[in-house]
Amino acid sequence: MSFEEEYKQKLTTADEAVKCVRSGDWVDYGWCVGTPEALDKALAKRADELVDVNVRGGILFHVPYIMQVPDAEKHFSYNSWHMSGVERKMLTTTNAYFAPIKYSELPSYYRINNATPSRVVMIQVAPMDKHGYFSFGPSASHLGAVCENAEEIIVEVNKNMPRCLGGHESEIHISKVSAIVEGDNPPLGEMPAGGPASDVDKKVAQLIVDEIPNGACLQLGIGGMPNAVGSLIAESDLKDLSVHTEMYVDAFVDLAMAGKINGSKKNIDRYRQVYAFGAGTKKLYDYLDDNPECMSAPVDYTNDVRVISQIDNFMSINNAIDIDLYGQVNGESAGTRQISGAGGQQDFVQGAYLSNGGKSFICMSSTFTDKKGVVHSRIRPTLAEGSIVTDTRPQTMYVVTEYGKVNLKGLSAWERAEALISIAHPDFRDQLIKDAEKLRMWRTSNKR
C-alpha cells in the first residue's frame, strides 16, 4: 500500500477521531504551536459524555476549547509542563495546574513512566512528505517520547505548519498514526518579539555583548533583554557565531539575516542551528521552514548539560524575576504565584560554565514597579516567601543589571552580598547593606 493510500484510509473528521477518548484518560495536546485546534473543538463538544479527562500540554496561545465549556472542571483538567501568559491566567480561572519539571528530563518522564502515559495523543503537524512523515514543526521537544507509549495518535494536518528538519525525533511516520484530520489550517500562534528595547535593556545588553567573543555559541531565553542582546549583536562586529538553544526566537533570525551566524566554529553539529522548539512571529516560522541550516531536536539533547559543555565559548543568556544576596535566582514565580517554569535555565547555566570559555548570564532590570506604583528592588536580602529557587546559589555565574555585571562563582557569602549590592539600584543599596548585616553577610571592611 502506498503512503497516499494509507493516508486516505486513515483520514477522518475531528468529531470521529476524538471518539476514542474515554473518561479518566490522559490526553496529550503536544506543545506550543503543535497544540491541536480542530481536535480540541471536537473534544469540547463531547464534554457532557466525559468526566475526569486530563489533558497535558504547554505554552498555549489561547485557552483550549475544552476549558471553556460549562462546568469544565467536571469534565477536564489542563496540566501545563511550561506556562505562557495564557496558562498563567488559567491557573486562577480554570481547572488548570502546573507541573514543575526539569525540561531536559521531560522525554524520560514519558518513557520510564514517572508521569502517567498519555493514552491518546493529538498533535498539529505539517503535511505528510513523500516518505510518509509528518513533521512536528518547530516543536520536536519531547513529542517523540510522547508518542512512543500512546495507544492512539491523532495528527491534525495544518498547511501553515513549517516542515522543520532535524537530527532525530522531529517527525512521526504515517505507520504509527491512528487517524489523520485535516483542520481549517489556522495561522500559527505568534509570540511577538516585543517592542523596542528600553534604555535599561540596552545597557544590560551592552554589558553582556562586551563579554561575547567571535565564534561563540548562543542560547537566548525569552523576553525583552535576551532579544535586546540579539539586536545588539546583529549591529556589532561579532562574527562566526552559532546557535544551540532550547527556544528558537526571532532574534536568531535577525542575527542569521545579518550574517552573524554560520556555525563554522562549533564543536558539534557544525553549521547547524540547534533548537528544541521555536515560537515567534511568522518571520520565524517562514525561516525555519525546510531550512537545512536549522536542526529541530528533542529537548533531552538540546538541554543536556553533557552536550552543552562540549561546545566551546557557550554563552547562555536568560532572564530572572529576582535574586537574593545568597545568589539564589528565581526565574519562575512571584511568591506563590507561578509566572513561568524552570525550563532549561538550570541546564544552560551549568552547561555554559562547564564549556571551555563559556559563560552564563542572568539578566534583569534592577527594579520593577508594582500595580500600586511602588518601586521594588529585584535584588533582595532573601527571596520572597513561596518564591521558587530556579538556579541554586552554587550554579549562578554572571548577574547583570543596568548598573553593572558581577561573577559570583567562587565568592564567599559576604563577597556575594557586596557584589550584588554593587549592581542594585542606588536607592536600595543602603537598605540592602543593613539587610546583609542582619543576615551576618556584611563585614566592616566591605565597601559602602
TrEMBL record:
Occurrences of domain Acetyl-CoA hydrolase/transferase C-terminal (ranges): 280-436
Active site: E246
Protein EC: 2.8.3.-
This protein's UniProt keywords: Fatty acid metabolism, Lipid metabolism, Transferase
Annotated metabolic or biological route of this protein: Lipid metabolism; butanoate metabolism
Catalytic activity entry: butanoate + acetyl-CoA = butanoyl-CoA + acetate
InterPro entries: AcetylCoA_hyd_C, AcetylCoA_hyd_C_sf, ActCoA_hydro, ActCoA_hydro_N, Butryl-CoA_acetate_CoA_Tfrase, NagB/RpiA_transferase-like
Acetyl-CoA hydrolase/transferase N-terminal domain mapped to chain residues: 4-185
Listed GO MF terms: acetate CoA-transferase activity
UniProt record, GO biological process: acetate metabolic process; acetyl-CoA metabolic process; butyrate biosynthetic process
Annotated binding of CoA, by residue: G221, I222, G223, G224, M225, I321, G344
Entries under HAMAP family matching the protein: But_acet_CoA_trans (MF_03227), But_CoA_trans (MF_03228)
Family of this protein: Belongs to the acetyl-CoA hydrolase/transferase family. Butyryl-CoA CoA-transferase subfamily.
NCBIfam families linked: butyr_acet_CoA
Function according to Swiss-Prot or TrEMBL: Coenzyme A-transferase that converts butyryl-CoA to butyrate.
Name used for this protein in its record: Butyryl-CoA:acetate CoA-transferase
Organism name: Candidatus Weimeria bifida
